[in-house]
Automatic annotation (TrEMBL):
GO terms for cellular component: cytosol. Its EC number is 2.1.1.176. InterPro entries: MeTrfase_RsmB-F_NOP2_cat (IPR049560), MeTrfase_RsmB-F_NOP2_dom (IPR001678), NusB-like_sf (IPR035926), NusB_RsmB_TIM44 (IPR006027), RCMT (IPR023267), rRNA_ssu_MeTfrase_B (IPR004573), RsmB-like_ferredoxin (IPR054728), SAM-dependent_MTases_sf (IPR029063). This is 16S rRNA (cytosine(967)-C(5))-methyltransferase. The keyword RNA-binding applies. It is found in: Cytoplasm. Belongs to the class I-like SAM-binding methyltransferase superfamily. RsmB/NOP family. It comes from the Bacteria. It comes from Gilliamella apicola.
Amino acid sequence: MNKKLHSNIRAICAQAIFNVLEDGQSLSTTLMLSSHKIAEKDRALVQEICFGVMRVLPELNFYIHTLMSKVLTGKNRVLHYLLLVGIYQILYTRIPEHAAVGETVNAVNDLKKSALKGLVNGVLREFLRQQASLQQKFIQDNKQQTSQTLHPSWLLNRIKQAYPQQWQNIINANNQKPPMWLRVNLNHYSVSEYQQLLAEQQIKSEAFADLPCAIRLLSPVNVTKLPYFAEGVVTVQDLSAQYAAYLLAPKNGEQILDMCAAPGGKTTHILEIAPKANLLAVDVDASRAKRIEENLARLKQVAEVKVGDGLTPEKWCSGRQFDRILLDSPCSATGVIRRHPDIKWLRRDSDIVQLTELQHAILTNIWSYLKTDGTLVYATCSILPDENKFQIERFLKENSNAQLMGDMKQFLPTAQGGDGFFYAVLKKSS
Ligand SMILES: C[S@@+](CC[C@H](N)C(=O)[O-])C[C@H]1O[C@@H](n2cnc3c(N)ncnc32)[C@H](O)[C@@H]1O
């Protein structure tokens, strides 16, 4: 289906959402694969619709299931997602209702389902007629139910269990659009100097007292609008992710391993702090590893990049030992749901146990490549204790030569702040 050339962006959105929810592709991947079919001017709207539908999926499904006695299945399933696209535009965008309905109905032709144009038109028009009472019904019928939180129940239960006081704030933060954070390369400009450059382009921003390089934009902009972006003066990176390199505290001349490094957001930060470190960046995914190279090139930095599996370091590490290791572990990504709302529908409860075992195995394998007195920073963008606090407690129990430095840091997502992130700094004794 991906190979077909769509001209109607609603058809592209419906197909992308189908690919995520029926085929298990990540939304970013499926949109990247279809990007050649989307005109530059339409990119922002496609993103807005697709990410938006993922954010409020249970609400949109509720309306369709209330309006239609039979759900669309089989070859016509893609039209179910087109209907979600239509209703999302009516409820959550400034597109006038008649245009939202008209364009969505036109997309039926592009999806080669012309015979069902009348059905799509009818359901959307019925939604408009009943909109107020349906919205009321969604709130009333779901008062006690998890769909009101727009999260799957297994995840909601885990979050409630881990954070009995804060779960509501976490859910609220997850359901919002993410803020855009920048990391200024302090080798070129200070934060206040770069804020001046932004102000000259009418881009409003705020600095953040705790980190010297972080800036939040009051509204997101395309990176091409950021002064000297192409020259590597600034990088888009969430606030919480910016702690990694500081906690690692790399020094020039040291041997450093950036494990699970792609696309290289933290690799480039490490080299901003210690440009003369001997850095090896490794990731198992060859296509993602390429993006480390691209990011290094943009920032004019030098590092060795290898495709390698954290489970088998002996295959790519050839006995090298490191002063510092950053392990940015594969995880549930439950801390970045507002950036990737498709995570809510792609992950399963059973994934958590598997991920926890993978993390434990990579951490254990990599540990033996750390020099005595060396430092390892374990990081995840998860908010689940199994992947974080409990993972580290288990590791400390199993490895008497591992010592926790300071407290573990569990950041939770907040509306205008950083993503959910976890850090533990471990030191190795002899
Ligand atoms: C959280 S992302 C890393 C983000 C990156 N550190 C950054 O700051 O841009 C996790 C990465 O782990 C990689 N990964 C997953 N399993 C792996 C394994 N067994 N060995 C090495 N890398 C792995 C994934 O390909 C993914 O790129």
